[in-house]
Recover the amino acids of this structure.
């Protein structure tokens, strides 16, 4: 079976920067990535490169910043009041996730000042060229529940446990 829309794909990947420094390795974590093809679960450039491949396929993909996490936007670096942080102890380099206008966003603390905190809401990999080594492990048809949710579900998930948006 080949990778196509409405199919669940399981794969291992090694993500490296332009210089070959490994940023993430699913095999080292013993946790393959599973995604529902055609539903925006992964970057469009990766989906495009994987389309038509079958289990056992191995490939390398390079994504320029605009194809990956976007270009850095200096307008996303700004100062906020210290009251915006629930924990009293925060330091440069700390990252956390917060709700954003377009979904969750990662916030990085750049500097802690007396009256505020300088934050960066660019994705940590924005502006970076990314290189992926991919190995397709499995391709299967998505279940109705997975199609309703728009992403793969854990094995053994019963249909009654999932709200079917198509039926509501």
């Amino acid at each position: 079976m080949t990778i196509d829309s409405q199919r669940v794909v399981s794969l291992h990947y090694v993500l490296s920067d332009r210089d070959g420094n490994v940023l993430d390795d699913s095999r080292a974590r013993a946790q393959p990535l599973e995604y529902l093809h055609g539903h925006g679960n992964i970057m469009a450039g990766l989906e495009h490169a994987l389309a038509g491949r079958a289990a056992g396929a191995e490939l390398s993909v390079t994504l320029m910043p605009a194809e990956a996490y976007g270009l850095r936007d200096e307008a996303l670096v700004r100062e906020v009041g210290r009251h915006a942080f629930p924990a009293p102890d925060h330091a440069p380099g700390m990252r956390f996730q917060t709700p954003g206008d377009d979904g969750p966003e990662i916030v990085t603390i750049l500097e802690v000042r007396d009256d505020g905190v300088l934050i960066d809401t660019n994705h940590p990999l924005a502006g970076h060229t990314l290189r992926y080594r991919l190995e397709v492990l499995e391709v299967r048809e998505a279940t109705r529940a997975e199609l309703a949710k728009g992403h793969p579900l854990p094995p053994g998930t019963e249909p009654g446990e999932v709200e079917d948006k198509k039926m509501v």
Observations:
- The CA atoms of residues 20 and 131 lie 8 Å apart.
- The mean pLDDT is 90.
- The helical segments are 44-50, 144-149.
